[in-house]
Amino acid sequence: MMFLRSPGSSCRALLAGGICLVVSACGTTYELPDSGGVHSEEAARLFAEARRSPPPATLSRSAAEARFARVEPRVMRAGRETCQRLRTGVNCNVDIAIDRQMTERNAYFTYQNGQPVIRISLPLIQDTGSDDEVAFVLAHEYGHLIGRHVEKQQQQVLAGALIGGALAGLVGDSGDAVGLGLGVGATAGGIVYSQSYELESDTLGTRIAYDAGYDPVEGAKFFARSEAATGTSGGYSIWGTHPPDRRRVATVLATKAQIDGQVGLRNVR
Ligand SMILES: [Zn+2]
From the UniProt record, which GO molecular function terms apply (predicted)? Predict the structure, then answer.
């Protein structure tokens, strides 16, 4: 089921859910770890703690730039190695940079002229409490590349448009059904993926952040903070596209336990 948070979302979720029944592209590529039991309990504790804690002091722009400069090369190297080792078939050479136009606290993965890029805004970095948090955000976005989430979502949207168009032909209502399909996740930075894709990115991101020498559990605390879903100029913030969710923290904990137990990533059969 798609997880959509805009007006008319129930209709879109129903349509997208229907698409998922007929398009195999909706599933994850890699197995998600079992995030129940002790991981779920520990996630609840960490989540509550993150909610209670005061937000970290806002970094100056120069301190945020320095944090990005420290973290980016390490995450890029670890992400590329993971991407190449998994033989995903995607272009593993991602361009990671600060999006200086973006005033919201946001980060995203997209393609620009066929080149995979990860962008993060300076206001987001200024609000991080540690290098681990920036590393986890960037590593999570790298997970969207390795999971081929943009390609899969485009296939779903296309299938939705075809199904919507076919339905519209049957019921004689032209615009809405097609518009419904094509409207999903149209702009970079505002893409809302299905929850299973987010969890897959968390699984991959945990491994990449760890390989880059960071603490993924510390880093994931960033996502547990309570913040507005949109910024002051109306654009999505990272919490709009990545709703805080205990299951995400539990997935990070479960993946870390797999790493500690030397359990590797497994493809979904
Ligand atoms: Zn994501």
Answer: metallopeptidase activity
